[in-house]
Amino acid sequence: MSIAALILAGGQGSRLGYVDKAFLSLDDRPLVARLLERLAPQVDAIAISANGDPSRFAPWPHPVLADAPDHAGKGPLAGLAAGLAWAAHIGAATLLTVPVDTPFAPRNLVPALSPAPAVACYGGRQHHLVAHWPVTVRPALEDFLRRPGAHRVRDALALCAARPVEFPGPIDPFLNINTPDDLAAARALWKKEKEEAAFWGLLGFKGFPWSG
């Protein structure tokens, strides 16, 4: 069964001065590259959800999916709709979604969230955009997006009865980078992981043991 992944890189980064968060640096590499490294071993294909000039992602050989005009202004669910259409086109059965500003996504994310549908949780809090979706939810999602009113990710998860999956560990592996303080914390955490990599490697782990 083929599994695809979609990196959601369409956020405005308003609290970071409207920067393109995909290209924020973490140990001299952009966030999008860091997340690709985490996801590539777990899935069969990856696309990037982003509007604007797709050529900025040219260094990475992955399709860049813009939101459909009919779904403009409908937030990350517009990206999900485009991702599900792409996943169906390539014959994937399921689609994993992860925001681009989630560089510590676990290396066992796919097995932990399988079978789909499922959504990641930490400390009892759902991370709605870290989810594993069956491609068959696409018609229901399209219908949902055509309705007036708010288009919340939690409501889309309810469409397919996604089960919550709790991830253990001393830190939230789904830490989002939304503010300068978040970015500083992520850089400090990455530095700590890098410094301890040799130690954890002796124990058979890659990075922090709780990251899978």
Please supply descriptive tags for the structure shown above.
alpha/beta; single chain; disordered C terminus; 6 helices; globular; seven-stranded mixed sheet; two-stranded antiparallel ribbon; Spore Coat Polysaccharide Biosynthesis Protein SpsA, Chain A; 212 residues
Report on this structure.
With 212 residues, the chain is α/β, with parallel strands linked by helices. The protein has a single domain (3-211), classed as Spore Coat Polysaccharide Biosynthesis Protein SpsA, Chain A. The protein is 31% helix and 20% strand. It is built from 6 helices and 9 strands. It is globular. The two termini are 22 Å apart.
Q: Name the CATH architecture.
A: Alpha-Beta Complex
For this structure, the CATH topology is Spore Coat Polysaccharide Biosynthesis Protein SpsA, Chain A
Q: For this structure, what is the CATH homologous superfamily? A: Spore Coat Polysaccharide Biosynthesis Protein SpsA, Chain A
Radius of gyration: 17 Å
